[in-house]
Amino acid sequence: MLLDDEQAAELGNRLDAAYQFDLHVWREATAPASNYNPEKHANDWADVQQTMCLCDPAIHLLTADGKLVNKVAASHQANRVLFLPGYHSLSL
Q1: pTM for the structure as a whole
Q2: Which one of 19, 58, 83, 92 counts the least CB within 10 Å of its CB?
Q3: What is d(CA 18, CA 40) in angstroms, rounded to the nearest whole number?
Q4: In terms of residue numbers, what domain contains 23?
């Protein structure tokens, strides 16, 4: 099944956090003086998978991973990635 233009645009919009995360990693890895070592960033694969959950507009991510938060900061979905230390006063 092929996507029409409208569906492709919607998919791109819904994958924005994953795209921004991946773009951040790519820029970090390809910077002129980069010392990026994929072995030291093994969690990036799992993190980008988590950002794909944001395709569902009802999903929010609650994380203590400040690096993940920073990598999706340019996304319009960044407001749904909640940094755990900011929620320390929640009472259960």
Answers
A1: 0.85
A2: 92
A3: 20
A4: 5-87
